[in-house]
Amino acid sequence: MLQTSMSSDIELLRQKRALELRKKMMLSQEKNAPAETPSPKATSREIVRKILEGRGVEVLETARKYYPREVDQVEDTLASLIESGRLKGPLSGEELYAFLRRIGLVFSMDVKIRVKEHGELKTLEQKFRDSR
For 13-36, how does the pLDDT look when each residue is reduced to its tens digit (9 = 90+)? Predict the structure, then answer.
């Protein structure tokens, strides 16, 4: 009789230990699961901005003021080309401007011509005023 109660106690301890191990495994799997979920996909705008350099962002935003829907479509197309590896950066503002004009998006950029004189940048207006 004594041996039967000891074996049942041992069996209970063994089952209890197995249950604890299962709980630990479940908890560790729950902790690892969120880390495995993919991060949110970058938007087309973010993907395109990563390859722009110089005045590229300025050109894109100016074009967006004139042609918001068309620029969104262009960004989607450029982003898919970038993701597929068919378009590799960097893309300068001048190249982007020329491309947008070629596809029919005609707009003007704010252009300032400045002259460096005696280590100081001056606009043409200042240069002509000072030379009188």
Answer: 888 888 888 888 888 777 765 554
Q: Whose structure tokens read 């450029």?
A: 78
Average pLDDT over residues 46-52: 93
CA–CA distance, 62 with 40 (Å, rounded to integer): 28
Determine the average pLDDT of the residues in 31-45.
Answer: 68
Half-sphere exposure of 123 (CA within 13 A, CB side): 5
| CA distance linking residue 7 with residue 15, whole number of Å | 12
- Predicted confidence (pLDDT) at residue 86 exceeds the cutoff of 70: yes
User: Judging by beta carbons within 10 Å of its beta carbon (0-12, 13-18, 19+), is residue 59 exposed, middle or buried?
Assistant: buried
CB distance 47 to 79 below 8 Å? yes
Q: Which residues contact 115 (CB under 8 A, 6 or more apart)?
A: 121, 122, 123, 124, 127
**Is 117:127 a contact under the CB 8 Å cutoff?**
yes
Average pLDDT over every residue of 101-110: 92
